[in-house]
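Anyone? Bumping this.
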Amino acid sequence: MQLTLEIWRQAGPQDKGRFETYQVKASPDMSFLEMLDVLNEDLLAQGKEPVAFDHDCREGICGSCSLVIDGVPHGPKDLTTTCQLHMRSFQEGDRITIEPFRANAFPVHKDLVIDRSAFDRIMQAGGYISVNTGSAPEAHSVPVPKENAEQAMDAAACIGCGACVAACPNAAAMLFTAAKVSQYANLPQGQPERTHRALAMVQQMDAEGFGACTNHYECMGACPKGISVDNIARLNREYLRAESLPELKP
Amino acid sequence: MSQVLDSKVPSGDLADKWTQYKFDLKLVNPANRRKFKVIVVGTGLAGSSAAASLAEMGYQVHAFCIHDSPRRAHSIAAQGGINAAKNYKNDGDSVYRLFYDTIKGGDYRSREANVHRLAEVSRNIIDQCVAQGVPFAREYGGLLANRSFGGAQVSRTFYARGQTGQQLLLGAYSALMRQVHTGGVTMHTRQEMLELVTVDGVARGIITRNLITGELERHSADAVLLCTGGYGNVFFLSTNAKASNVTAAWRAHKRGAFFANPCYTQIHPTCIPVSGSHQSKLTLMSESLRNDGRVWVPKKEGDQRKAADIPDAERDYYLERKYPSFGNLVPRDVASRNAKQVCDEGRGVGATGMAVYLDFADAIARDGKAAIAARYGNLFEMYERITDEDPYKVPMRIFPAVHYTMGGLWVDYNLESTVPGLFVLGEANFSDHGANRLGASALMQGLADGYFVVPSTIAAHLAGRTLPPVNPQDPAFAAAENDARERTEKLLSVGGNRSAFEMHRELGQICWDYCGMSRNAQGLQTALGKIRDLREAFWNDLKLPGSGSELNQSLEHAGRVADFMEFAELKVTDALHREESCGGHFREEHQTPENEAKRNDEDFSYVAAWEYEGPGKAETLHKEDLIFDNVKLTTRSYK
């Protein structure tokens, strides 16, 4: 299949950036990133600079790949990361627009490669249960109701790709933050630090320049792992509860 | 025993060695730990767990990863589970049984003491992960669920749906993030280690390239831990992530760390077959699928009928036929080799003929579609996304693919390499899986090394040696940085016509054809010639864009391919020298009349550790004899 690509090119963080148009020949059983591999080999052969993009596992789990494809983070197929999107989702002759995830908190390094270290800093603020190696009790000493374990796992499936931020009109990181808070809120092991966690992670999220949630639910629509906005409701409850205990504020 | 290689395996009863050894080890006083700086390269299961644990103890830790975040490491992609000898199922499991299964599964090519220690600490790993909030699968009573996995006859595998690696890595990553927050760990992302720095023969730092700016950086320390994964991408097509590479290990090898058993590669039996020449990687389907799926091919050669049109009597469920007691659950090496054999006979299925069926029709008829969906739903979806076929309706097509590498840098019982102060953890070392790794054991080993082994054994180095202060201004750092810079400049100045991508693919094909699932002396000799020719072509005809002083993904890849080009020769040399079949290393000259692997314990019951002798020179082989005091070497039989 013959395709026309409009790809965002940006030399570095200071560069203004622009779209450039390319032609590429693909086959339907290629993944989207394999199609970009082909383009990059073509560009190299022509003495032009290949397009920089983040990717790694190519099985939809590492969260490295990103891309806004025709206006949608990770492209047109539901519950699918860009690396798992296949060209059979497109038609012969299609014109496809490819941009980086856009948010003030995700500055562009180059072309389609962005800086998502803000997510790590949200995690550093409280995305953990404090348990030093060696100090854990026997695993069966604390039973966890299956329903809670399943809900924790639903939330824990987040791959930290940032599609939720890219899809949100406010560039909020609520779904990402909520998924982690929710995972621990569902587990008995997460209770001792629940107050501090909710406050500290939300505070860091705000400090990074992410926007506020105004219930568009675009995040859930874009999430390749189907993380539910129910988690945001839980984060709001956790946060309100924590706020009502002023002496525990970090 | 080689004069050079001292495994430092402690004396005493197998079951007491680790406990006694920990008591005998020197300790670093808590107040002194903050004076020691430890570099951890790689943030997968081994690296993240080691970095977090060492920081919790009070060491100053500097952790490095090539990704934008430590959470991206490829441990994240492991699906199936993690073994632990908890015996929660009351089915006769024990530390000794896990030890025994692992030694046997490794085809008696691993070290008894290391494997026993692994089995011992497996239990602590589960405790640690549960306390961290890893959402393992649970029963209705709230206790942990287990399943049987990958050729084990007990249910000892803990899992979190099909995303066990992800959840364990996120657990270790969260512990790491906590230490970054407290200041115990300084995290360096998007940094690639290009050289190991040794001072007076001791590992004292690394040279890294900042992948965003291209700048080379010098980092000094009192110990260096390599947790940089395996070398599977020497095959180009593998289940490894695209950035997985041998560079850190290879550069350490060239600075004196011996490379052990590089011919041992695990070819995983249940992967989605190659579909075309554009393919950039292969995708694993968890082998938990073999618990319910039945593997078959048509009895007749060249049978072009659809699977549904082939009656049961004309199907060959070859694993069930040949191995009645293990059936579809034979270990990975056995399952892979048999798949290749039936395809070589012309009985493979699908457009390429290089695939076998994994059929769920009987399981769906027995347990219902809902039950199968609950067990494997995410895997079935992944399969459909990639192949556009619905495995609830037609059998999956699978074929073996390179998945894991048992070989790696040689380490002693402390996990210290032949370079003092350089420790190697996880898949990057050679130590625990022998010639074949059992399912659900990689996650166990990575976390064992990082959480429980190295935090103790590192004291042997830090408290046991006098470490004069070093700083990055020392000449050794300048020299190593210069080597890294020259190498980068050399890559950029070739000015040829071929891309690293294309030549990497070619290298992979050579390795797959001659040093893949089955090997023979003539083929391996051929491969040596082809690899040398390709390497020469690489350095004469490489085309790279851009410069070294910017984000340049083509340059990053080319540097890794350059190291694979050198490593491949050692891998093939090792395969050629090992005149026996064992585990994942199948030499066609050494097989039984039933085409099973034939080991030669008399002559090859040793670890082959290779010493780098300089550019263009043959490497020197050192042997560490494997001593089995506790298990009796038998022919591995799964019949």
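Late reply, but here is one note on the structure posted above: DSSP finds eight helices and seven strands in chain A.
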